[in-house]
Amino acid sequence: MPQSNLAADATPRRRALQTRSAHAKATPVWIRFRLAVASTEVFTIRQALQRAIGQLARIYIVRVDHRHHETTVQVEVSRAHREHAMDAIMHALPAAEFGFATELGADHVAH
């Protein structure tokens, strides 16, 4: 019975690390940032966001606070498009307030 040569079948560590880091660079890093708008007109807010950053955003999470007359939106965009998305939102919703931005881990999946 022929023996397997494990050294020939294994990928050298240096090449494996280079492949892994090249894959990490190709995978976009997503961030989620919070946006507060002093309005409960959710349809109007979503319409403005869709026109401004429709293709850049992966997901919108909307929470309406009728008591304080405020809508909170969490938007997920790739880190590479963050500045463009924020600029477009400022033009579409000038009274909106930006909250903190959070980098999402590689295990995070859009719902």
What does this molecule look like?
Residues 1-23 are annotated as: Disordered. It is a single chain. It is built from 4 helices and 4 strands. By secondary structure, the protein is of the alpha+beta class. The protein has a domain at 28-103: 2-Layer Sandwich (Alpha-Beta Plaits), CATH 3.30.70. The chain has a 4-stranded antiparallel beta sheet, with helices on one face. Strand 2 and strand 3 form a beta hairpin. The longest helix is centred in the N-terminal third of the chain and has 14 residues, at 13-26. The protein starts with 5 loop residues before the first helix and ends in an 8-residue tail after the last strand.
- Distance separating the two termini: 51 Å
CATH classification, class level of the domain at 28-103: Alpha Beta
Give me the count of strands: 4
Helix percentage: 25-40%
Placed side by side, the strands forming the largest sheet appear as 2-3-1-4
The portion of residues forming beta strands comes to 25-35%
Shape assignment: globular
Rg over CA atoms: 21 Å
SSE class: alpha+beta
Mean pLDDT: 80
Main sheet makeup: 4 strands, antiparallel
Please give the CATH architecture of the domain at 28-103.
Answer: 2-Layer Sandwich
Give me the CATH fold name of the domain at 28-103.
Alpha-Beta Plaits
Low-confidence stretches: 4-11
Query: What series of H and E elements makes up the topology?
Result: HHEHEEHE
> What's the tally of helices?
4
